[in-house]
Amino acid sequence: VKLWESPGRAGGLLMFINKILDDLDPMGIISMVRYAGVDIKNEYDPEAKEIANAIKNFNTLGKLAGTIKEVFDQYFYDPDVDEDIYNLSAYRIWNAWLVHNGRKPISIPQNLTRIPPPDCKPVIIVA
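RE: above sequence
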């Protein structure tokens, strides 16, 4: 059974993708909200669902990273985002997929393990 064809296993993959995206917080939303004293989970659920739905089309890390970038550009286009965050996301999602399928994860390059968190400044919205 393919990962994306089984609702239970696909749901597990979605959970992993959500956790990975929440941990990496590519847009800095979770960090900003935590700054205000609120803890949130699954902030990137729509993006995680799109990535999980497309996972069957990934046969290289590069394609996965490209798709992650496309998804985030669709929702949050920000030309200042360090693209390494998409590459690190791809490695972590790829490894979650490998482990989920009983395979050994691959090593993440050193240059991707030390990506600083996004520069998160509080935003004040006045209505």
